[in-house]
Amino acid sequence: SDHQLEYPVNPDEMDWQKLYPHFFDEATNRMTKQVTIADIGCGFGGLLIDLSPEFPENLILGMEIRVQVTNYVEDRIIALRTNHADNNSFQNINVLRGNAMKFLPNFFHKSQLEKMFFCFPDPHFKQRKHKARIITNTLLSEYAYALKEGGIIYTITDVLDLHQWMAKHLEEHPLFERLSSDWEDQDKCVQIMRNATEEGKKVERKKGDKYVACFVRIPNPEIV
Ligand code: SAM
Hints:
Family: Belongs to the class I-like SAM-binding methyltransferase superfamily. TrmB family.
Subunit structure: Forms a complex with TRM82.
Radius of gyration: 17 Å
Helix content: 25-40%
Shape: globular
Largest sheet: 7 strands, mixed
Bound molecules: S-adenosylmethionine
Structural class: alpha/beta
GO molecular function: tRNA (guanine(46)-N7)-methyltransferase activity; tRNA binding
Distance between the termini: 44 Å
Strand order of the largest sheet: 5-4-3-6-7-9-8
Keywords: Methyltransferase, Nucleus, RNA-binding, S-adenosyl-L-methionine, Transferase, tRNA processing, tRNA-binding
Number of strands: 9
CATH architecture: 3-Layer(aba) Sandwich
Number of domains: 1
Oligomer: single chain
Order of helices and strands: HEEEHEHEHEHEHEHHHE
Strand content: 15-25%
CATH class: Alpha Beta
C-alpha cells in the first residue's frame, strides 16, 4: 500500500541525481535539467525507451505502482545504459515506483511538465470502480497544475468506453482543449505511443482498435 512508499515532501527534496546521474552538475551541486515528460502507469517501459532518443534533451520519467514491474524497468534501463555507455544513450529516462493518483505534486513543480502520457490505463470496467480511473475531474486539475501552458496530455486505449470517458472528462475541464486528428497525424509522439508500449503491441497482435485523444493545456482564465 501507499504507506510503504516513500515520497519527497516536495520536488526539491527528491534525489533526482540518483535517477539521472548524467544530468547532475558536481560544480553547482544541482541538476542541469528537470523532468519534463511523464509516462503515468508506464508498465514495462516500452514508451520510455522509444521516447529516449527522440528527446535527448528532456528528462523522461515513468511512474508505476507495481513493485516488480518497476524493478523490471529499472533493470532494463541499467542494461541499456551499460550497452550504450560509449554514447551515453538512455541517460534521460528512468522509472519511479509510486501512486501517480496521489502524490504527483510531491514530484513536480507547477508548470514543470511538457507532456504527460496515459497509455492503456487500467479500464476499471465496473461502474462503481470508475472513481479509480486515472482520469477524473479532481486528478485533471492536478495534471493541469503540473503541465505548463501549451503542454500536452496524450491518451490511448483499446477500450472504447474508457476512451469516451477520458475524452469527456478532458473536454469538460476548463484547462484542456482537444487537439484535432490532423494534429495527431503529424505528431511524432502519437506515432510512438501507438506502437511503443507493451500493451499497444498486444492490441496490435490481436488486431484490436486503438483510440487516441490528445489535449493541450490552455492558459488559466483571467480573473476580472
Ligand atoms: N502504459 C503501459 C502500456 O501501455 O504498456 C502499461 C499499461 S497497464 C494496462 C496499466 C499500468 O498502470 C499498470 O502497469 C499499473 O500497475 C499501472 N498503474 C495503475 N494505477 C497506477 C497508479 N495510480 N500510479 C501508477 N501506476 C499505476
